Amino acid sequence: MLMVRNFVVTAMLLAVFGCSPQDASQPEAGPGHGQAEPAENAARRPEAGSAGTDDALFGAFAEAWIEQLLEREPEWAIYQGRYEWADRVTIPDVATRAGRHEFLHQSMEQLRQFEPDRLSPARRAEYRLLENRMESMLWYQNRFRNWQWMQSSYNVAGPISLLLNTDFAPEDERLRLVSARLRAVPDYYAAARASIDRPTLEHLDLAVTRSRGALGVLDDDLLERARAAALSAEEVEQFGQRLGLARAAIEDWVAWLEDQRQALQAGDNARPFRIGETLFEEKFALDVQAGLDAGELYQRALQEKTRLHAEMDEIAVEIWARHFPDRVMPEQPLERIGQLIDRLSERHVTVEEFLPEIRRQIPALAEFVREHDLLDQDPDKPLVVRATPEYLRGAGNIASVSAPGPFNPGAETFYNVTPLESFGPDMAASYLREYNHWILQILNIHEAIPGHYTQLLHANRSPSLVKSLFGNGAMIEGWAVYAERMMLEQGWGDHEPELWLMHGKWLLRVVTNAILDYSVHVLGMEREEGIRLMLREAFQEQSEAEQKWRRVTLSQVQLSTYFSGFAEIYDFRERRKAALGDAFSLRDFHNQFLGYGSAPVAVIIELMEDS
Ligand code: ZN
């Protein structure tokens, strides 16, 4: 249930929000040439003058810096909808990393010539976002060094798929860009192999799955597509040769990974996936940008779990007899809540109806939002529900939203749903119970309307390129979780207690995500204990718990972002409501809140309170 928000964290892949492969958010992106490109002309020391002058200078700096970053990181640029450099592949080697390091250090120096206090509030927010982005990129490369141990971040298929699936230029031009990228694939994987040092087994396994998915993109159909396009015979031949060499390079990479797995297992020498307290706190500070640290958030999550258990028990007592007329209600609250959730989970669609049902619900949600005047929508930009492409599968997510960047707002936004047929029958049955009649509605609110998809439309309309590009994950996920509760409060589902109980379970999952994330990476929680927490105290299905365990071994901090963002947004709305009284309008609040783009919640609060 997240937005595939690869773009947020680093060198930033795609604006897939929601439920997605977090580790893919750390691709080696970079110019591939290694030489630094100083941005001397971009930043000038601001002269003494009005805030207007400082603002204008800062705006020019930010714009120039983004252009440089786009040019240096062509994969990121593709995901943002800029294709000028799409024929270039960033080779993840020492020279690329050295060039990036140099560039970022110079960028920091230039940024610090501005004094944030002399900027207007909106520009000050951008200053903080740019500063965070630069620090974050340096931290990932120099300190976290995930390029060394996260093999799953190496994948050539993502940008190629986007070039093939996005209609930004005629087919033949796009295929020429693909051809140029195919050419670099052997060098790309050679550099990837040279970068890896003592990886984790967990990321190794994901890398194998993803790379097999990449072979599904670079298949014979792609060659057929090149043959059918307006390319010369020579170009088609070259395309075929490059495709063959690229496939061979990926196959070699997979074979190499499998050898590595054997060697690591034999020598018991794999890197532990737990990152420990110091790195976790550092990553939390950079990725989440919240007003508290990870340890404090963990404590808050523990309190919220207790509160939710009490709330859910009240509902359970109220509706018990309706669902169990002949069964004595258990003494233990967790016991009776669990039995009710179990019973309610029996109501669900079939495997075949899973995707069509999602497709059916989207217009109903849009209509409800319109009728209740909850926020602005854009009927011209429909959401396309599709089966998740192979190259995005494998990280344990059922649903995600992948969206065009702000440079290409006209492109299609996809709601990716992994077909349940792709799991075994037992796993599929378990998913259906998890995404039952009630939870499926909440999932659609979260992913689509008015969750990730709606938030993204607003973000792309935001006049701030900085905020559109460097979105904050806690704001993005927090908004989607907030949207669930807000829709129920406004009467989606007619205040049905069963829906509220299930919502309690869903929110409990968000709370448990934060608890699990911290417990596993910092406190050393083992698998068995983690699974027990999810099954017993968060009422999850076995399949969900196992997938979540997998995710916590592949990502760090990301699972804490939902709860952090939700709590901040919800509390702010309540404060605002109390302060404005009758003048408070939910629609205005939402439109204004989303109008600032995907900035950290704390920054949005500051801007709204200033306005
Ligand atoms: Zn989400």
Please work out how many helical segments DSSP would assign: 26
Strand order of the largest sheet: 1-3-4-2
- Describe the biggest sheet? 4 strands, mixed
Mean pLDDT: 88
Order of helices and strands: HEHHHHHHHHHHHHHHEEEHHHHHHHHHHH
Strand-pairing-aware structural class:
mainly alpha
Helix content: 55-70%
What is the count of structural domains? Answer: 3
Strands, total number: 4
- Poorly predicted spans: 1-49
Radius of gyration: 24 Å
Question: Per the principal axes of the C-alpha atoms, what is the gross shape?
Answer: globular
How far the N terminus sits from the C terminus, by CA atoms, comes to: 33 Å
Bound compounds, please? zinc ion
Beta-strand percent range: under 5%
Description:
The structure is a single chain. The chain has 611 residues and is an all-alpha fold. The protein has 3 domains: 6-144, no CATH class; 184-267; 287-610, no CATH class. It has 26 helices and 4 strands. It has helices spanning 6-9, 51-72, 74-80, 94-111, 121-144, 146-149, 157-165, 171-195, 201-217, 220-228, 233-267, 276-288, 294-323, 333-344, 354-371, 425-434, 437-447, 452-461, 465-469, 473-489, 497-521, 527-537, 542-554, 558-580, 586-595, 601-610, and strands at residues 15-17, 383-387, 399-403, 413-417. A 4-stranded mixed beta sheet has the order 1-3-4-2. α15 (354-371) crosses α17 (437-447). The chain is globular. The two termini are 33 Å apart. Residues 1-49 have low confidence and may be disordered. The structure holds zinc ion. Residues 1-3, 18-19, 446, 452, 477, 480 line the site of zinc ion.
